[in-house]
Design a protein that fits this description.
The chain has 285 residues and is an alpha/beta fold. The protein is built from eight helices and 13 strands. It is 35% helix and 20% strand. α1 runs parallel beside α3 and α3 packs parallel to α4. It binds iron/sulfur cluster.
Length: 285
């Protein structure tokens, strides 16, 4: 799924490196470069979040991934970043370091059938570039497939690679999942998938909040979210915390005109309520 992340890309064009699967994200704010891996060059996702930044988003899964091409692209990108002139030529001073490799593309990455083989491939390349244990491997996912055996397998492999999962968690109600993510997934099933992911690999909740038709999340929405946070704590599910986002970049979906950013103090107040319910929160307006 698309990164709605603390990175403020100054070069986030997935075609900028002329590659199919691999693209650089340069961030002044995060003080470094992230190597993005897009397993959905077909812009296909099984969800259709109203704030999604993917243009021409379609419903569907990742296509068959050409693993040899992916590996060649990743090696070429890392060679350019670590041994070439990419940093000098394209990255502002103060951000000339490699932060992470992130599976974050134009759709749901875990819908790639070869997901566990792709994690193996990334691990092999990281080892060859002596990056193992030095940078993070981040998976940005809607989590809807986290109970599939091949996805569980991939998550377990990620844990051994300093992996981190950013698990989309915008709403804990069926109505919210329908309205925000346009999915009929049940909140209970999603909660179980979250627990599965968190037990396999360090996992953060990734939550986007905004006003829809001028209205912030309702009291019932907020209560359900906080109840889910308390349940995470009560059941000892090892979630690391919440990455809380506002509307950082414009939606590319038909609902874009109905969305608006909430004031920074609303976000801060919401973060405080989540903290009081038991999880650490990092806010990115
Ligand atoms: S999960 Fe949502 S935000 Fe992510 S790619 Fe799919 S539709 Fe877009």
């Amino acid at each position: 799924m698309a990164r709605s992340s603390p990175l403020t890309p100054i070069d986030h064009d997935r075609d900028s490196a002329g590659m199919t699967y691999v693209y650089p994200v340069v961030s002044r704010r995060a003080g470094g470069v992230s190597v993005g891996i897009n397993l959905n060059p077909n812009n296909a996702c099984n969800w259709a979040c109203v704030y999604c930044q993917v243009p021409d988003l379609t419903r569907g899964a990742a296509p068959e991934i050409d693993l040899a091409q992916l590996e060649a692209e990743l090696r070429a990108m890392l060679a350019d970043l670590l041994h070439g002139d990419f940093m000098q030529a394209r990255v502002p001073e103060g951000a000339r370091r490699l932060n992470d490799i992130a599976l974050s593309g134009n759709g749901e990455p875990t819908s790639a059938r070869a997901f566990p083989q792709i994690i193996d491939l990334i691990g092999r390349v990281m080892a060859d570039f002596e990056l193992s244990g030095k940078i993070k491997l981040v998976l940005i996912t809607n989590g809807s497939l986290a109970d599939r055996p091949r996805v569980r397998d991939g998550l377990q492999k990620m844990a051994a690679l300093n992996g981190e999962v950013w698990f989309k968690f915008d709403s804990a109600t069926a109505a919210g999942l329908r309205a925000i993510n346009q999915t009929r997934n049940s909140p209970d099933k999603q909660f179980e998938r979250l627990a599965t992911a968190a037990r396999l690999c360090p996992t953060w909740l990734q939550t986007c909040v905004f006003a829809l038709d001028g209205t912030p999340p309702s009291d019932a929405e907020q209560a359900a979210y906080l109840a889910a946070v308390k349940r995470i704590r009560r059941e000892g599910i090892p979630v690391q915390g919440v990455l809380l986002y506002g509307l950082a970049r414009p939606s590319m979906q038909p609902q874009a005109g109905r969305l608006s950013a909430l004031p920074a103090d609303w976000l801060e107040a919401w973060a405080e309520k989540i903290r009081a319910a038991g999880l650490p929160v990092k806010v990115s307006p």
